[in-house]
C-alpha cells in the first residue's frame, strides 16, 4: 500500500485543467465526444508527467511558472501534443482556443485568465488549503452568482404585474 502524505496527488487539479481545456474544444462543436475523450486522456497523462517533480503541496506556488499552461499567440506544446493525437492541427487549435489563455495549475487551486488583461477565474479550489484572509478578491464565479441571485426574480414579478 502507498504511504500517502497530505494530499500529494494532483488528480483534482489536473482534472479541472483538463476539463476546462476540453470544454473549450467542445463548445465549438468541431470535435467529437470520442476525440475529446482521447484528447483529455492524453492531456491528463502529459500534465501528470510534466508536473511530477514540480508539485509542492506544502508550498503551493513554488514552480507555478513551470506548471502554467499558456497560449500567447503561441500554442502551449503540451496542448498541441495532446491535440495531435486526435488529428487537430495547429491552425485548427488556434481557431478553437482563445489566442491568449493562461491556466495556472497549482496545488489546491486551478485558475485561468483569457486575454492578457482579463480577470482571473478560479476553476477549482480546495477549501482546506487556505486561510480565509488570503483571498479578499471574489472569484468570477462568485461575482456572477452575486449578480444573478435574488433581484432577478422580483424584477420579473414587477415587470409582469
Automatic annotation (TrEMBL):
Species assigned in the record: Rhagologus leucostigma
Homology family: Belongs to the BTG family.
Protein name: BTG2 protein
Source organism, top-level taxon: Eukaryota
Start and end residues of each Anti-proliferative protein domain: 51-71, 97-116
GO cellular component: cytoplasm; nucleus
SUPFAM superfamilies the UniProt entry points to: BTG domain-like (SSF160696)
One biological process term in Gene Ontology: negative regulation of cell population proliferation
Name of the coding gene: Btg2
A Pfam cross-reference name: BTG
